[in-house]
Amino acid sequence: MLKKLSALFLILNFSGCSMSGSTITEMKDAYPVVQTPSEYQSPLEAIKIFYDFIKEQKLIEKAQKNQLNREEHDFLAAAAVLTRDRAQYENELRTRQTLAIQPGRSYAFDLESFCVDAGKHSPLSGDEFAVSILTGKDMDWLPKILENYNKFSIPQERVQILIWKLLTGARFDELSAQERGDLIKMDPNASAHFGNRALEKIAENVMSEIIPTEVLSLRDSYEEFRNILMQSQKSYEEIENILAPPSSRKEVAKMGWSKIPEGFFIRIKSLYGFSAVRLEVYMPPTGASLFRPSQILALPPDAQRLAISANAFGSFDQSYKKISNWLLDHLSQKLSEEEHSLLRKYPIDAAIVFKNAMVAKVKEFENFPTGGEDDAADAFRHFIWAGLNGKDLGTTRAREFLIAHEAISGQSASSKAMDLWNNERGLEASERLGKNASASDFEKAAFAALRDKKLKILKK
Description:
With 460 residues, this protein is of the alpha+beta class. It has two domains: 1-42 and 98-315, no CATH class; 337-451. The chain has helices at residues 2-15, 43-57, 59-64, 70-96, 142-148, 156-167, 177-186, 190-194, 197-210, 213-230, 236-243, 318-330, 337-345, 347-367, 376-393, 395-405, 413-433, 439-451, and strands spanning 33-34, 99-101, 105-115, 128-133, 257-259, 265-270, 276-283, 289-291, 296-299, 306-312. The strands form two sheets. The protein has a six-stranded antiparallel beta barrel. A two-stranded antiparallel sheet has the order 2-8. Strand 6 (265-270) and strand 7 (276-283) form a beta hairpin. Helix 6 packs antiparallel against helix 10 (213-230), helix 15 (376-393) crosses helix 18 (439-451) and helix 17 packs across helix 18. It is elongated and about 90 Å long. Mean pLDDT is 86; it is low at 1-21, 199-204 and 206-211.
């Protein structure tokens, strides 16, 4: 028996053989689930709010005709900041495979992902996952594939088939010429790492004598999957339905947020079965860390485990892409640095603030068609804008945005003082009128404040 074991050890070592199967990380390895970080706001959800309003108001068409007012331009400028950030982060992830997570910042990415648990049901769109770090022998090769396939323009479906084959024990010599070429590009040592099936055949008789029955049974199930994968006449869709069958569940799984030892919070949600996830990250104000998606493993309560790449998944529809491209190509940023900071820290709140500015501008135009600066129309607009912000965000957060807006360069000290004073009167009105107040309610309150001389006006 000892001689047989020694012979088997030598053969398997030389051939690169290892029992593959699914990744070995289990639910018990997951990081603890925690409450949603109170300060987190999804930049992708904020971008959607901005883009939907841009479409509704036809702001790009107005910009192309040079018909934007100040508030509309600011709204587009704010959308451009988030759009540029998104493009920058996606490019950094794609090129470096890591992203420096900044303190006090919220992040959200739609990323390509891969099934690493053949035979389990595919996740439902919306399923949430527990989070762990990829461990075991998979760390020797899987991150190399996740981090390199896009560099060589290898399609995601082709990579998924390759991952399934390797996880089910396929050896280098069993892969197609195209797959061997792909694998060598991504992992130059692949031929040695994944071994040779011909050499392993020598060990089969020895293996059947010394390996327990339950292990052989597990090996047989992997071989069944491998045989399916090796049938070149099957389409990707046919293979997908066998190795990642649709789930019969109706309710999506809720897992929530996890806290990573490096100090940041993370939530993973399926966007499109096993092929794409939305990955959200929040770093508290006191931390900073490097984030590497290829080391993350998404663990479902009842579905496939997913490995995650750093490559963006195209989740935007065509109309959103047109808006994104226009903002990147045409719009300069004319917001204060303080506004930039708050926009990145609270992107959803920022969308509400800049949208409220446009509502206030409409009310000003309806009542003061000629508009003006430092006059009653200006005071009226600031009162309504501040009131709407206070109602929607609370006075503390609203005040942060209002003060940041007045930090724009080129404004006189007296004009700034006037605006800040009238903002405070609007915030007071929001506390008085309550959460159910409408723009018309703040319009009436603004007229009353003007009548009672409670607003500051520099020009009569």
